[in-house]
Amino acid sequence: xxxxxxxxxxxxxxxxxxxxxxxxxxxxxxxxxxxxxxxxxxxxxxxxxxxxxxxxxxxxxxxxxxxxxxxxxxxxxxxxx
Length: 81
Fold this sequence. Notes:
The protein has three helices and no strands. The chain is mainly alpha-helical. The longest helix is centred in the first third of the chain and has 23 residues, at 13-35. Helix 1 (13-35) packs across helix 3 (64-74).
């Protein structure tokens, strides 16, 4: 069994930027789906529920804590487990 390195490799600025953009994009999509709940139309509520459900399952697990930080800053109710 291989041992894990004690020190992490430095992350390139481009990699950090791409990860930051991905996290922010997930949070924006979730915020937009949640905003549909405030429209008083049943069809839009159903669409918002479906979209939000899909998004919650598609967010990669390693990105979820960072997406949650964006969701808090956007002031939405949804959080990823």
